[in-house]
Design brief:
Layout: H1 2-14, E1 18-28, E2 34-42, E3 47-54, H2 56-65, E4 72-82, E5 85-88, E6 91-92, E7 96-103, E8 108-115, E9 118-136
Antiparallel strand pairs: 1-2, 1-9, 2-3, 3-4, 4-5, 5-7, 6-7, 7-8, 8-9
C-alpha cells in the first residue's frame, strides 16, 4: 500500500501541466489602422484578451462619431475550442448575435453574424503571424 502511495505521489508531482497560448500578432483591418492590434488566447483558461492602439488618424475619425472611443484598450472574452475552431462566446440576443472565429490556418479573425437563423461570415482582421506558446508548470 505504501509503495502505491509513493508511486502515485511521484507521478502527480513529476508530471507537468501544460497550457496552450496563441497570440495573433500585427492584425490589420480594412476599416481601421492600428499601431498595435493583437489577440492573446489562453485555450486552457478559455480566455481571449485583445489589446489594441489606434493610429492618431483612425482615433480622430472614430472620435468624431463617438466620444466614448478610446485610443488604447484591452478587452477580454470567453473562448472555447469547438470542432477544431477557436470561437468566442456569443454576444447579443437569440435572434441576432455575433461571434469571433480565430482561424489558425490562414491567420484570420472572422466575425460570424446570425440574424433569424441566417448566418454570415466576414473577415475582421488579417494577422501577420501567430505565435504558439506551451507553458509548463
Amino acid at each position: 500500500m505504501e509503495k502505491k502511495f509513493i508511486i502515485i505521489c511521484f507521478f502527480l508531482f513529476s508530471s507537468s501541466l501544460s497550457a496552450e497560448i496563441l497570440v495573433f500578432k500585427n492584425c490589420k483591418s480594412e476599416d481601421y489602422e492600428f499601431e498595435k492590434n493583437e489577440y492573446k488566447i489562453d485555450i486552457n483558461k478559455g480566455e481571449m484578451t485583445r489589446e489594441f492602439i489606434y493610429t492618431d488618424e483612425t482615433y480622430e475619425r472614430l472620435r468624431m462619431n463617438d466620444m466614448r472611443v478610446q485610443k488604447e484598450n484591452i478587452s477580454t472574452k470567453g473562448v472555447t475550442k469547438e470542432n477544431g475552431e477557436i470561437i468566442t462566446e456569443i454576444s447579443g440576443y437569440p435572434a441576432f448575435y455575433t461571434q469571433m472565429i480565430f482561424d489558425t490556418f490562414d491567420k484570420t479573425i472572422k466575425l460570424k453574424s446570425v440574424l433569424n437563423n441566417t448566418e454570415g461570415i466576414s473577415i475582421l482582421s488579417n494577422c501577420e503571424k501567430i505565435i504558439k506558446y506551451k507553458l509548463e508548470s
